[in-house]
Amino acid sequence: MTANAVLEVAGVTKRFGNHAALDTVSFAVQEREVVALLGDNGAGKSTLVKCISGIHRPDQGSIYLEGSPVAGQDSGIGVVYQDLALFDNMSVAENLFAGREPCWPRFPRGFGLVKRRTMLDEARRTLHRLEVKIPNLKTPVGLLSGGQRQAIAVSKGIAFARRIVVLDEPTAALGIRERTNVLRLVRQLPEAGIAVILISHNLEEVIAVADRAVILRQGKMVGEVAATAENHETMVSLIVGGSLPLINGKTGQE
Questions:
Q1: Can you give the pTM of this predicted structure?
Q2: d(C-alpha 28, C-alpha 6), whole Å
Q3: For residue 215, how many other CB atoms are within 10 A of its CB?
Q4: Burial class of residue 254, CB neighbours in 10 A (0-12, 13-18, 19+)
Q5: Which domain range does residue 231 map to?
Q6: Which of 121, 142, 163 is nearest to 30 (CA)?
Q7: What is the pLDDT of residues 76-96, one digit of tens each?
Q8: β-strand 164-168 against 77-80: which pairing, if any?
Q9: pLDDT tens digits, residue range 138-191?
Q10: Is the omega angle on the peptide bond into residue 105 within 30 degrees of 0, that is, cis?
Q11: What CATH number corresponds to the domain at position 120?
């Protein structure tokens, strides 16, 4: 296990039939770090996220959360998928706790009375900590703006995440103001002690919020660089498989 790593992906391989969606992928995410996961369509990003979240079990290799193997979907890793997975007819608070409602008494199979006051108070504290402003937490999510919905999805992802959250294209289809608010939220997560894996096709956003970029291509990890403006061309070259730019007379891989 890498020292100080919140999450470590160690030699993970995942096959579907004869196709290797992931081929011995290894990298680590340190405490209070934002790591961008980059790659073109079909690079293996979605498969890797499903392995990290416990949906898929790797055929080879291991994934560790704070030194312990990830076991199942209740490992404490929050995941926010691109489709948000929100219920439009349910309130903000109900969406945040969907499937994890505080109940009393807690009977087998999840039966019990929902403690709605507790749910509202916990939802209010979570949103306040992330500076997400929703006037009425009883408002159906379907009536909110795209930016508010995205912020709620991110908040839901981290509400039960112990140390790390995975964000899949969190600014997709948002306007400029809403995108700015979501990126501000991403920057706040490490300050709250939560590391981030950010999947994005927007390199400008990656440079704005990420510390490092891990690049996948055709299921293989092909590079890991600092997410800086100076490395923009290098990241593009690694994603598309072109020749790397010269750095002090040498290619970026040397």
A1: 0.80
A2: 8
A3: 22
A4: exposed
A5: 5-251
A6: 163
A7: 788 887 766 788 899 998 988
A8: parallel
A9: 999 999 887 788 788 877 877 767 689 999 888 877 778 778 888 888 888 898
A10: yes
A11: 3.40.50.300
Q: What six digits make up the tokens of 97? A: 């706790």
In total, how many domains does the chain have?
1
Write out the chain in H/E/C secondary structure. CCCCEEEEEEEEEEEECCEEEEEEEEEEEECCCEEEEECCCCCCHHHHHHHHHCCCCCCEEEEEECCEECCCCCCCEEEECCCCCCCCCCEHHHHHCCCCCCEECCCHHHCCEECHHHHHHHHHHHHHHCCCCCCCCCCEHHHCCHHHHHHHHHHHHHHCCCCEEEEECCCCCCCHHHHHHHHHHHHHHHHCCCEEEEECCCHHHHHHHCCEEEEEECCEEEEEEECCHHHHHHHHHHHHCCCCCEECCEECCC
